Amino acid sequence: MNLVTGNPSEAISLDKLRNVLIRLEDTIIFALIERSQFAHNDIIYKPGAYKYEGNEEFSGSFLEYFLWEIEKVHAKARRYQSPDEYPFMGPLPDPIIPPLEYPRILKPNNINVNSKIMEFYIKHIIPSLCVPGDDMNHGSATTKDIDCLQALSHRIHYGKFVAEAKFQDPNLQPKYIEYIKAEDRKAIENLLTNKKVEEALLKRLRRKALTYGQDITESDSIVGDNDHIHKHLKIDVNVVVELYEKWVIPLTKEVEVEYLLQRLDDPLEDTE
Ligand SMILES: O=C(O)C(=O)C[C@]1(C(=O)O)C=C[C@@H](O)C=C1
């Protein structure tokens, strides 16, 4: 979605937002495939494992250090002014180019679940995605981690736009307002959950991971039987599906619920 030049009312169509989520599946699968070529390299994630010249007081992990440095540069290029971009680290410098006028699609909110994304990624995804051990490719593995984390963060925080589109459905809005006022998280979650969309997503994801993960130089692998394909895959398909089932979809829903809970706090809102 082009948040800058797009027509705000068009930009909020649920179908279009779902198409963005579908496209981001590809980004995430390819980023995971890239990371999986390197070993676990546990030292990247250990706080204080390295000392940083000129920044000796920083006691975080190498991944956090690298991510922060990158986010500082990206902040100068106003990346985090965009309502679909959220930083992991801070504080960050102000942009060095003038701000853009974004259409005001989202209501003001302070939701950022990046610390949860970082935690499940390091604890659950990396150990099942990568071979154990240390191959010394610490810099390369970290750049791939950053690609994975940024893609996951983008996808999960997109839940804010999805929630806004759902709220704007005139048939559902009275129910949303009732549950938001009652602060009933469970009822909001049930109302925004679409099991059919989730099931279709998980099936599609499995097919994509099977297809994108194939080694095309294996001449017979594409038409081969399932066992044969699995032997030549660059990535464990189950890791990708589980990532979405256990973490990406639930956290997207959490973002949606939290966004809706803050949705009526906007003084300019007239949905009384
Ligand atoms: O597509 C939607 O309706 C969403 O809210 C997104 C999403 C997802 O994370 O993919 C989350 C909740 C729904 O149950 C279905 C899918």
TrEMBL record:
<dbReference type="InterPro" id="IPR002701">
    <property type="entry name" value="CM_II_prokaryot"/>
</dbReference>
<keyword id="KW-0028">Amino-acid biosynthesis</keyword>
<dbReference type="InterPro" id="IPR036263">
    <property type="entry name" value="Chorismate_II_sf"/>
</dbReference>
<dbReference type="GO" id="GO:0046417">
    <property type="term" value="P:chorismate metabolic process"/>
</dbReference>
<keyword id="KW-0963">Cytoplasm</keyword>
<keyword id="KW-0584">Phenylalanine biosynthesis</keyword>
<keyword id="KW-0827">Tyrosine biosynthesis</keyword>
<keyword id="KW-0057">Aromatic amino acid biosynthesis</keyword>
<feature type="domain" description="Chorismate mutase">
    <location>
        <begin position="144"/>
        <end position="256"/>
    </location>
</feature>
<keyword id="KW-0413">Isomerase</keyword>
<comment type="pathway">
    <text>Metabolic intermediate biosynthesis; prephenate biosynthesis; prephenate from chorismate: step 1/1.</text>
</comment>
<dbReference type="Pfam" id="PF01817">
    <property type="entry name" value="CM_2"/>
</dbReference>
<dbReference type="GO" id="GO:0005737">
    <property type="term" value="C:cytoplasm"/>
</dbReference>
<dbReference type="GO" id="GO:0006571">
    <property type="term" value="P:tyrosine biosynthetic process"/>
</dbReference>
<comment type="subunit">
    <text>Homodimer.</text>
</comment>
<protein>
    <recommendedName>
        <fullName>Chorismate mutase</fullName>
        <ecNumber>5.4.99.5</ecNumber>
    </recommendedName>
</protein>
<dbReference type="GO" id="GO:0009094">
    <property type="term" value="P:L-phenylalanine biosynthetic process"/>
</dbReference>
<dbReference type="InterPro" id="IPR037039">
    <property type="entry name" value="CM_AroQ_sf_eucaryotic"/>
</dbReference>
<dbReference type="GO" id="GO:0004106">
    <property type="term" value="F:chorismate mutase activity"/>
</dbReference>
<dbReference type="InterPro" id="IPR008238">
    <property type="entry name" value="Chorismate_mutase_AroQ_euk"/>
</dbReference>
